[in-house]
Amino acid sequence: MSAYKVALVTGATGGIGSAIAKKLVEQGLKVVVTGRNADKLNSLVEELNRDNVVYYDTFDVNDYEAMKNFVEQLKMKNIEIDILVNNAGLALGLASFQEYDVSDMITMLDTNVKSLMLLSHLLVKGMVERNNGIIINIGSTAGQFAYPNGSVYCASKAAVKTLSDGMRVDLMATDVKVTTIMPGLVETDFSLVRFKGDNDRAKTVYQGIDALQGIDVAEAVWYVVNQPKRVQVSEIALLANQQGNGFTNFKK
């Protein structure tokens, strides 16, 4: 029987996050799910079956006070998080560094790095006290190699990998594990968010290539969770079949 009972998935209303939550429930775990969109979150909870969702809350991960209140609610309800999946993240815009919108730059760093770091910090002490837990940070192949007009997003995902590596070293005397999963091109609303609702432009990103789907990332998460106690998966990189690396694609 798995040592892990309850998983928290942030950004659960997105394509990858919802797929992860569904996969973990399918495998018999209970989940806590969060997201910014209350309607989508309620729909997800209904789809997962409320018996499988021990708690859910709508808040912006960039609001630290809301995040702390959320964690306090978990403590008050005696909900112990065994698996933290830091999935919430986004890209905004696509432009050369010198032309980038400053507010977009700050939002990407706050969402992709700062919020992940702070939520992990709030929950990891409990994991250490119980000497049991796993933190899975959803990074990106963009964190391995920068691509044109994506410098800040790439930097944020590189920070996710480096932070994960450092956390793993700091926690290696415990049974708390840390994994980075780095997907390549995944067909979700990612590009729609990046291009701020420009659906036609977003569609071109996935045309001519059989992109990864949210379930593919969810399967990787389950692989990590399902390892024996002695095994720690440091990182997994996932590419679509027509991707040579994070920024080189073959489109039919």
Structure description:
The protein has 252 residues and is α/β, with parallel strands linked by helices. Helix content is 44%, strand content 17%. It has eight helices and nine strands. The strands form two sheets. A seven-stranded parallel sheet has the order 3-2-1-4-5-6-7, with helices on both faces. Strands 8-9 form a two-stranded antiparallel ribbon. Helix 1 (15-26) crosses helix 8 and helix 3 (64-76) packs parallel to helix 4 (102-130).
Furnish the topology, listing elements before pairings.
Elements: E1 6-9, H1 15-26, E2 30-35, H2 38-48, E3 53-58, H3 64-76, E4 83-86, H4 102-130, E5 133-138, H5 151-170, E6 176-183, H6 190-194, H7 199-206, H8 214-225, E7 235-238, E8 243-245, E9 248-249
Parallel strand pairs: 1-2, 1-4, 2-3, 4-5, 5-6, 6-7
Antiparallel strand pairs: 8-9
Helix pairs in contact: 1-8, 3-4, 4-5
Q: What labels would you give this structure?
A:
alpha/beta, single chain, seven-stranded parallel β-sheet, 9 strands, two-stranded antiparallel ribbon, 252 residues, globular
